[in-house]
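Researcher: Here's a chain I'd like modeled. Treat it as a single chain, no partners, no ligands.
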Amino acid sequence: MTALSARGPLASRTLHCFAAALLLVAGDALMASWAIADEAAPTPVPVALRAPSNEVIPVLLDQARVIKLPERAATLVIGDPLIADISIQPGGLAVITGKSYGSTNLVVLDRGGAVLMDRNLEVKGPPDPIVIVYRGAARSTYSCTPQCAPRIGLGDDPDFFDKALAQSIARSTQALSAGAGTH
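Model: Modeled as a single isolated chain. Structure tokens:
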């Protein structure tokens, strides 16, 4: 981004004229794009001119939430894919998965680019009992449902994270091996 500065009354007036000219050009371009869109097909009011939706879709960290998509949904956009992920399912459904704490948004567009839905997503921590142990700067997370066991959590010490991940992979491998023997 470029910053402009001015000193004195003449320079200040020049900057004001420059800013006004930019607004006129931007406004003309916006009006022209609306006129073209009106000629092509009827398009809903642009999102920038709509009242913002205060509806929030709550999602728990590391859990999935199924939502029903509006009809004609063609494109899904997640504002920050580090916070949440989404996948489209048959039957007009989508699965949102919480990946990190925080807020982002979900925008659903139709094939023509019209916004069908714009909702905020809030990813929060799981409600189950969790114990976080700090050993100096090293952090370890344990899920206590009902007995405490290592759980991979955001911000855990890399050594603890690697050990918990190795245990999880070992359990998954054992389960797959046991399941393969029953067929």
